[in-house]
Amino acid sequence: MNAAEQLIRAYYAAFNAGDEAAFMALLSEDVVHDINQGEREIGKAAFAAFWARMTRCYKEMVIDLVVFTTPAGDRAAAEFMVHGEYLQDDEGLPPAHRQKYVLPAGAFFTIRNGKVVRISNYYNLPDWIAQVSV
Questions:
Q1: Structural domain of residue 96, as residue ranges?
Q2: What contacts 74, CB < 8 A, 6 or more positions away?
Q3: Each residue of 98-109: pLDDT tens digit?
């Protein structure tokens, strides 16, 4: 396993463990985060605010993780399944009633000096909405 794959696997291991300190340690100070069907946010502070909202509103686990990396180790992609529970209303989304969902997802990464400098997440938002609108 190369360094880029180790970094991405550590990223998702920290995510699954809910270990914010370990997770944030893997990000560059100027990390760029492209939120699925949303805005681009820049910087660790913005990512920390996103993390806080996510952990308040959702309990998620990434499983079946597959990681692809470039030979240079500067880019990576991940494909996985998200098993989640919608805990608390998130602004602009349906009401939360602890609905469970399973969603295929993917992410693209740029890596520099052993840190994630960009992450772009993708999943099917209409599918998620349909799953939690029961």
A1: 3-132
A2: 4, 110, 111, 112
A3: 999 999 999 999
